[in-house]
Amino acid sequence: MSLELFKLDGRVALITGGTRGLGYVMAQALAEAGADVIVTSREKEKAEAAARAIAESTGRRALGLAVDVTIAEQVEAMVADSVQAFGRIDILINNAGINVRKPIEDFDEASWDLVQNTNLKAPYLCARAVAKTMKSQRYGRVINLSSMLGSIALPERGAYCSSKGGLIQLTKVLALEWAPYNITVNALCPGPIATELNTVVMNNPEANRFFIENIALGRWGRPEEIIGAIIYMASEASSFMTGASMVVDGGWTAR
């Protein structure tokens, strides 16, 4: 009976940036757990290809949508199309994110705005857009992909750290506002995971050595090592957790 808490049969999950990296791994995992899924990308072909792959491998319904999650009108259309296709949205994973690494004095305004809009504004827009549907259902799971760098800092990550820290605070506010509607809102905070976003660090011997030395487990995390956390947070198993931040970082922040 305990394992029944982790099943997602009958649920519908929307994952932004769900065509690659952690987004795709999470979308695939939720489908394997029983959910129908919607994955998004700015590129229609990538979104549709990812959805086909998930549907073929899991037997679940999957939809790929092209959307720029920093534009309110496109986000509203994304939610409307999702509800039209599947009738509901039970799980929202705000995964789309970007990192630009520069010293603060070299940070041009356009790069700063790109990071903030993608990492912080977009989750606000997506959460706002699903609010009506989840409130009417009196059920929802909103999971914001923050980072261990939402709580600690590294040089040259001014925009990224501030956006991810802001996302943790947004998570707490939404958790308080939406608790009366049986909607939980939590943040998942990965540490060093070997994804495309971190390739530039892993390919730099000095930077890679610095990371390995600060990870208690002595290695980069594998994308699939996030699966247990995301299924827990998306399922009934986490029904009494809201406003929380779950860190999966190989022990970095334990130091």
**What would you call the quaternary organization?**
single chain
Helix content: 40-55%
* Contiguous runs where pLDDT drops below 50 for at least 5 residues: none
Q: Give the number of DSSP strands.
A: 7
Strand content: 5-15%
Widest sheet: strand order? 3-2-1-4-5-6-7
Please tell me the overall pLDDT: 97
Sum up the overall morphology in one term. Answer: globular
What string, H for helix and E for strand, traces the elements in order? EHEHEHEHEHEHHHE
Rg, nearest Å: 17 Å
GO molecular function: glucose 1-dehydrogenase [NAD(P)+] activity
EC number: 1.1.1.47
Family: Belongs to the short-chain dehydrogenases/reductases (SDR) family.
Keywords: Oxidoreductase
Q: Topology of this structure?
A:
Blueprint: E1 12-15, H1 21-32, E2 36-41, H2 44-58, E3 62-66, H3 72-86, E4 91-94, H4 109-137, E5 140-145, H5 158-178, E6 183-190, H6 199-202, H7 205-214, H8 227-234, E7 245-248
Parallel strand pairs: 1-2, 1-4, 2-3, 4-5, 5-6, 6-7
Helix pairs in contact: 1-2, 1-8, 3-4, 4-5
Organism: Paenibacillus anseongense
Enzyme class: oxidoreductase
Domain Ketoreductase: 11-191
